[in-house]
Design goal:
Structural class: alpha/beta
CATH architecture of the largest domain: 3-Layer(aba) Sandwich
Number of domains: 2
Helix content: 25-40%
Largest sheet: 6 strands, mixed
CATH class of the largest domain: Alpha Beta
Distance between the termini: 54 Å
CATH superfamily of the largest domain: HUPs
Oligomer: single chain
Number of strands: 12
Shape: elongated
Strand order of the largest sheet: 3-4-2-1-5-6
Order of helices and strands: EHEEEHHEHEHHHHEEHEEHEEH
């Protein structure tokens, strides 16, 4: 029995690719590469997620990917997304796993022409060449439209049992899911955060301010409203309960957790360590402004750091101050 490493993205196409390979008798290990900016990811390398018919391992490569984002060889897309370089990195990492585990080839759920810029034949071949995996990548959903792979030439898989899907329509994939008995599967998601203009603007600002940010700073970009104080420290204000929960999990011991002290609905506000008194006052005023106590003349704010707390009375800030310190696109 031949063995393969499948690059799993969390979507229907990659699920189908794995199931097709299994149906052809291939021993498939599905791997999700967590790059920090995708959807449906876990940050724990080695974690296994059970799906219909197979399990998925998670491999964290966020640090490597972040270095790539700063200066991608093939450039960024419309926003901060280095799509071609990202695919090259993932295939390089997948080849390492293939060699470590004695697998014979790689599998992806890519569909020819589904993404005009990165899923054309010429681009896919260039990506394989850059990653050092020419002939090793089987794309079951578009296999009949691609040049024969090593797996086909060696008889490990039957080319005639691969598909010939192309373009953006998902009708064929949905029909295949029904045929395979998949009653529930992920719908198309927003995808990589680096394609989002707002997130990309935040990342661009962070990199212009700090060319080598810690991963903690990157993770903060995903939640809340973002401000930068006059002393250059970051303030993040939760927008809702989900943001508050996320910030609560992200705040480090030497950072400041700020909330209204009293029976008023309040955002959780994170202020970076090293914040000046003036910056903390701004963070407190922002907290008051976005709380249920925003119409009061003054609001009591609780500031906690390293499990030590104190209170501060502030006036909710005004719109002009919000605009002055809010992080906008560079």
């Amino acid at each position: 029995m031949s063995k393969a490493i499948a690059l799993y993205s969390g979507g229907l196409d990659s699920i189908l690719a794995v199931l097709i390979m299994k149906r052809l008798g291939v021993d498939v290990t599905a791997v999700m590469f967590d790059i920090e900016f995708g959807c449906n990811v876990s940050r724990k390398s080695g974690r296994r997620t059970n799906l219909p018919g197979f399990a998925v391992e998670t491999c964290y490569i966020g640090y490597k990917f972040m270095e790539l984002v700063k200066d991608p060889k093939f450039g960024h897309g419309k926003n901060m997304n280095p799509c071609i370089d990202c695919k090259i990195l993932m295939l390089k990492e997948a080849r390492k796993l293939m060699e470590e585990r004695g697998a014979d080839f790689l599998v992806t759920g890519e569909v020819l022409g589904q993404r005009p810029m990165s899923q054309r034949k010429d681009v896919l071949h260039r990506i394989e060449k850059e990653a050092g995996v020419v002939g090793l990548v089987v794309r079951p959903l578009s296999g009949k439209l691609m040049r024969p792979t090593i797996a086909e030439e060696k008889g490990w898989i039957d080319r005639e049992k691969l598909c010939a899907i192309s373009g953006r329509s998902r009708k064929t994939q949905i029909a295949m899911a029904e045929e395979l008995g998949l009653k529930e599967y992920p719908q198309p998601a927003g995808g990589c955060l680096l394609t989002d203009p707002t997130f990309s603007s935040r990342l661009n600002e962070l990199l212009s301010f700090n060319p080598s940010p810690a991963m903690h700073e990157i993770r903060l970009l995903k939640v809340g409203r973002h401000f930068r104080s006059r002393d250059g420290r970051k303030i993040v204000v939760g927008r809702d309960e989900a943001d508050n929960l996320a910030l609560g999990n992200l705040i480090a011991r030497d950072e400041y957790a700020i909330q209204v002290d009293g029976d008023y609905g309040s955002p959780l506000v994170l202020a970076e360590s090293g914040m000046s008194d003036d910056g903390l006052k701004l963070a407190a005023e922002l907290c008051a402004r976005y709380s249920a106590a925003r119409k009061l003349p003054s609001v009591k704010i609780k500031i906690t750091r390293n499990e030590e707390s104190y209170s501060l009375e502030v006036k909710p800030t005004d719109e002009s101050t919000i605009e002055r310190y809010r992080i906008h696109a560079p």
